[in-house]
Amino acid sequence: MSIPPLIVDPNHIVMTGENPFVRLAAEDTDHYTTSVSFWRMTFCPAGPGHVLFVKSELTGDQWRIYSDNAAMTRWLQQTIQGMLAPELKDESLAIVDATFAKSGDPLKSYTETITAGGDELVCSWSNMREPMMLHTQPGTPPGRPYGLNTVFVPALEASFSINGQNAAGKAWPRDRDGRPFSTSSLAFSESWTEAR
After folding, report:
1. What residue ranges do the domains of the chain occupy?
2. To bridge 147 with a disulfide, which of 21, 30, 68, 193 should be the other Cys (CB 3.0-4.6 Å)?
3. pLDDT tens, 85-136?
């Protein structure tokens, strides 16, 4: 049996890292009361680091940003994160200096803990589904300038808290191309590309 040749993605890699997210709602809709986008950056033009973007009733329904690399955070706002959530293109949003720690088994239960001053923010995922890999090219869907390759580990249960107070709502099951998915998921080995 012959082995097919390796296929090298022809696009330029703009970043690689992780991007777990938590999206909670009281009802089974896409109108989330809590939206959390967490990034652990391995490399990008502005260097490595971490950032948490969060909007919740716990933040007065306003976006807050926590990071240990402000330049990387601003780069994300003007590129990928700003594409995903246009409100986050606003560079007048303050960046709070923070430290980041992870724990757990991503196939069972996983936690990211963010410490900023006297505050502790915790993102948790559990009741995991089977991992799945997504691969798109720049321009797919039309108008989206970046391609994506990532491994999702969907979580049927997720939470977000600040200083022990849990955000309302819960994660909801979804279907993605016939595979079990969720409104909250880990996203590892995540690389974004753009056409050369």
Report:
1. 12-194
2. 193
3. 999 999 999 999 999 999 999 999 999 999 999 999 999 999 999 999 999 9
